């Protein structure tokens, strides 16, 4: 068996009876080439199974077309949806996505990101959570274009995309007050990521503006099982909350199941619950969760548009709104 894998442009030129430069022009959009010559090249390429080496072309222009997605918690519904939107829009823009899984912030993550840099990735999009700030600095030092999503890092040159957490917090507090709730709680994980902690701080501050204290409870990773434990902790207090803002929908779903099945509470009659993300499960009839919708397509479009623009030298900050999705886990006014 032959070790040869790729058909070269020179082989296409010989089969088509044209020059090597004619093959290059045939596969270059807008290049000047006679229709008959293009036809010969395309027929020869089809017969030989030739594909243009875009990586080699890009490296000649000091561009690889690779965009590295630095991601944690890829299995969660929200993160999966964001990855899907980003990869689709990158592909539409002619880019290739390379994913670095940062669920563990150790030397293997650093090694994976360095490998992406060795492949000459043009840019990195860093989603909230991990990696450590030092890995973000690594991207900057290697001259990559950089997009930070739901992070507070301050760097020269990147685009930072965040959500308007102040508006979110005010909306939740208003909804709880109109439902007649006065004993408020916030259910958070122990992940401590910038976006989650900003959500907590904003809610506590908005409640205090209305003269209300918030009971804050944190536990474990940001997931369904943690929500169940958080409900057990909050519902066994001497004074139970009558309204809970959960840091994500997954936490909220676990919280609701524990509140109903372990403590026989009715939602929203006994307890009002709000989540965040608007994952598909939030709309299931068994939950019907009031939540905030992550503007996933808008985030992806803004990130890719900025990476494709000519002027990326200036640091930019973009703040987006997360629409309030009203369902039946909060009593109506």
UniProtKB/TrEMBL annotation:
CDD domains: HTH_LacI, PBP1_LacI-like. GO terms for molecular function: DNA-binding transcription factor activity; transcription cis-regulatory region binding. Residues 7-61 form the HTH lacI-type domain. Keywords: DNA-binding, Repressor, Transcription, Transcription regulation. InterPro entries: HTH_LacI, LacI/GalR-like_sensor, Lambda_DNA-bd_dom_sf, Peripla_BP_I. This is Substrate-binding domain-containing protein. It comes from Ensifer oleiphilus. The keyword Transcription regulation applies.
């Amino acid at each position: 068996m032959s070790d040869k894998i790729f058909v070269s442009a020179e082989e296409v030129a010989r089969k088509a009876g044209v020059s090597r430069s004619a093959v290059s022009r045939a596969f270059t959009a807008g290049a000047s080439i006679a229709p008959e010559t293009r036809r010969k090249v395309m027929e020869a390429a089809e017969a030989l199974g030739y594909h243009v080496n875009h990586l080699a072309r890009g490296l000649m222009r000091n561009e690889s077309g690779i965009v590295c997605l630095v991601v944690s918690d890829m299995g969660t519904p929200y993160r999966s949806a964001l990855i899907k939107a980003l990869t689709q829009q990158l592909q539409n823009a002619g880019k290739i996505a390379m994913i670095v899984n940062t669920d563990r912030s150790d030397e293997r993550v650093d090694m994976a990101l360095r490998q992406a840099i060795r492949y000459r990735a043009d840019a990195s999009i860093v989603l909230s959570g991990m990696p450590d700030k030092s890995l973000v600095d690594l991207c900057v030092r290697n001259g990559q274009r950089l997009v930070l999503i739901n992070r507070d890092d301050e760097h020269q040159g990147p685009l930072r995309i965040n959500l308007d957490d102040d508006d979110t917090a005010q909306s939740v507090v208003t909804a709880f007050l109109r439902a007649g709730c006065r004993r408020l709680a916030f259910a958070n994980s122990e992940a401590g990521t910038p976006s989650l902690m900003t959500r907590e701080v904003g809610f506590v501050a908005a409640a205090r503006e209305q003269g209300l204290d918030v009971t804050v409870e944190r536990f474990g990773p940001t997931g369904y099982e943690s929500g169940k434990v958080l409900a057990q902790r909050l519902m066994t207090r001497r004074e139970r909350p009558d309204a809970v803002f959960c840091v994500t929908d997954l936490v909220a779903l676990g919280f609701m199941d524990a509140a109903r099945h372990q403590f026989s509470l009715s939602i929203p009659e006994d307890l009002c619950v709000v989540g965040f993300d608007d994952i598909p499960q939030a709309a299931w009839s068994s939950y019907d969760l009031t939540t905030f919708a992550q503007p996933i397509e808008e985030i992806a479009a803004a990130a890719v548009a900025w990476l494709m623009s000519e002027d990326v030298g200036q640091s930019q900050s973009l703040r987006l709104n997360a629409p309030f999705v009203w369902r039946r886990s909060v009593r109506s006014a």
